[in-house]
């Protein structure tokens, strides 16, 4: 990671005013890239070159200090037929980054996917394969020599159980293809930081341990390896609890770590509760990187839900990125803000709106709770969340017309997809069944 001096200075100045405007159509002030730079971290996004104008271009340039071409630098993109090269989109993204004082992560040189068909359909001897791989690296890395901060040299080399993935490279050259690729990349651009990048290696598991052992062995052999990329294509509710510990163990090997392709997908439709949970999880992932000195930063795999690979690949899932399809920042965006040390001022609840808690029914160890959110004439809400803390060990069970979670004594209930709106002079209610023993005092509820 090498943020420019001007980026650092902007970030330091920005720290003087870490007040962030409320989650409306417009994003944070200061932007993410200034918050990140003040912490010496990268905040990046994958981009599509053809979209880098208008609002998409403004956000890509204004909020991020690193860019990764989502597809433009893959072998199938740059050499679709043998000897015929198309660098248009890759060149465009690099030029855009330079114009906006951004670093570029090259992605990716040696992979089993998105290779040109002439390569995958060909029959090659090991010697021919080695030459093809080395020449490709020399050409592509050489083209951008001195201009790219990092390269994902080898992408996705492992299976889930930690064995090597059977790819054209592994099958032809053996596991040493990885060392050969890194060595070729170093020769082509000594200044670029060289990474191995993979998915499902965010927590401590068999696959990440295989990657760990590989990096340790490469370091011991003197093979040029500078960093490990944890892609972090995550699922809502399944952020690995060992993320920071895993980042730290790689850092302790003497390499950098980057979170390279973060997204957190959910089953659609999204709800206020799911988006709130996603915010917490974005915050947690970015915080795990911020906490480890050698974690260089976090890149999101597309910053808007309109430019995400998830809906095509996982039908029925989506809403995985920090901005919605209309480029409005989502709660997840504010999770990144808080993890980077910014402060989010929540939109104030209108004075005319309030929540009231009652227990319409109670029996030996059970009860029904009811909460009504009301707005006086002239006040309204478009979404709501009601929180309280139980005083006598009560426990929320099944809820209706809201999504409720309880952690210890603290309960948080958010509107369902159909009842976020509370009109002027109107009200909405939700209910739940709970359990109690001894006593069942009414908690004080907060509308937020
Ligand atoms: O460009 C063609 C277009 O001409 C055609 O009309 C269209 C029809 O399907 O396809 C377009 O190509 C698509 C390409 O993205 C560009 O949008 C491919 O079908 C599609 O398969 C390809 O998906 C990419 C995916 O890698 C392939 O594995 C995603 O955009 C890209 O975000 C994704 O990125 C990978 C990382 O490189 C490695 N880690 C996992 C990550 C997610 O799969």
TrEMBL record:
Q: Which UniProt keywords apply?
A: Carbohydrate metabolism, Glycosidase, Hydrolase, Polysaccharide degradation, Signal, Xylan degradation
Entry keyword Acetylation: no
Q: What is its EC number?
A: 3.2.1.8
- Show which residues constitute the signal peptide: 1-27
Tell me which InterPro entries the record gives.
Answer: CBD2, CBM2/CBM3_carb-bd_dom_sf, CBM2_carb-bd_dom_sf, GH, GH10, GH10_AS, GH10_dom
Catalysed reactions listed for this entry: Endohydrolysis of (1->4)-beta-D-xylosidic linkages in xylans
The record places the active site at 261 (nucleophile)
**Segments forming domain GH10:** 26-339
Which Pfam families does UniProt cross-reference here? CBM_2, Glyco_hydro_10
- Domain named CBM2 is located at 346-448
Q: Which GO terms describe its molecular function?
A: endo-1,4-beta-xylanase activity; polysaccharide binding
> PANTHER family, per this entry?
BETA-XYLANASE, GLYCOSYL HYDROLASE
- Protein's name according to its UniProt entry: Beta-xylanase
Organism, as annotated: Streptomyces phaeolivaceus
């Amino acid at each position: 990671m090498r943020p420019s001096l001007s980026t650092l200075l902007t970030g330091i100045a920005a720290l003087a005013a870490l007040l962030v405007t409320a989650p409306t159509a417009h994003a944070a002030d200061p932007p993410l890239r200034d918050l990140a730079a003040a912490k010496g971290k990268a905040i990046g996004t994958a981009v599509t070159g053809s979209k880098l104008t208008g609002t998409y271009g403004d956000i890509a340039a204004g909020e991020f200090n690193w860019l990764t071409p989502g597809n433009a630098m893959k072998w199938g993109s740059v050499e679709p037929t043998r000897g015929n090269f198309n660098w248009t989109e890759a060149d465009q993204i690099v030029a855009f980054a330079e114009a906006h004082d951004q670093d570029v992560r090259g992605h990716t040189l040696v992979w089993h996917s998105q290779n040109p068909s002439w390569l995958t359909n060909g029959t090659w001897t090991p010697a021919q394969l080695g030459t093809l791989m080395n020449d490709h690296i020399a050409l592509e890395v050489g083209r951008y020599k001195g201009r790219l901060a990092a390269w994902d040299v080898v992408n996705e080399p492992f299976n889930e159980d930690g064995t090597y993935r059977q790819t054209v490279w592994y099958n032809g050259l053996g596991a040493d293809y990885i060392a050969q690729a890194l060595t070729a990349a170093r020769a082509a651009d000594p200044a670029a930081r060289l990474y191995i990048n993979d998915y499902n290696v965010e927590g401590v598991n068999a696959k990440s341990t295989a990657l760990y052992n590989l990096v340790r062995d490469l370091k011991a052999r003197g093979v040029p390896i500078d960093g490990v990329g944890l892609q972090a294509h995550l699922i809502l509710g399944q952020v690995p609890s060992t993320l920071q510990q895993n980042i730290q163990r790689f850092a302790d090997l003497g390499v950098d770590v980057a979170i390279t392709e973060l997204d957190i997908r959910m089953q659609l439709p999204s709800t206020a509760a799911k988006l709130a949970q996603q915010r917490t999880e974005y915050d947690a992932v970015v915080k795990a990187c911020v906490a480890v000195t050698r974690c260089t930063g976090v890149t999101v795999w597309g910053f808007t839900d309109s430019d995400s690979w998830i809906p095509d690949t996982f039908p029925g899932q989506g809403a995985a990125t920090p901005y919605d399809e209309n480029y409005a920042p989502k709660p997840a965006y504010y999770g990144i803000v808080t993890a980077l040390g910014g402060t989010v001022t929540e939109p104030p609840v209108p004075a005319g709106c309030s929540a009231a808690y009652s227990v319409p029914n109670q029996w030996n160890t059970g009860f029904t709770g009811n909460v009504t959110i009301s707005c006086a004439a002239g006040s309204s809400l478009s979404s709501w969340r009601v929180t309280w803390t139980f005083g006598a060990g009560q426990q929320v069970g099944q809820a209706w017309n809201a999504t409720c979670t309880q952690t210890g004594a603290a309960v948080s209930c958010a509107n369902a997809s159909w009842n976020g709106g509370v009109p002027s002079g109107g009200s909405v209610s939700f209910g739940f069944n709970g359990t109690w023993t001894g006593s069942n005092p009414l908690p004080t509820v907060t509308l937020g």
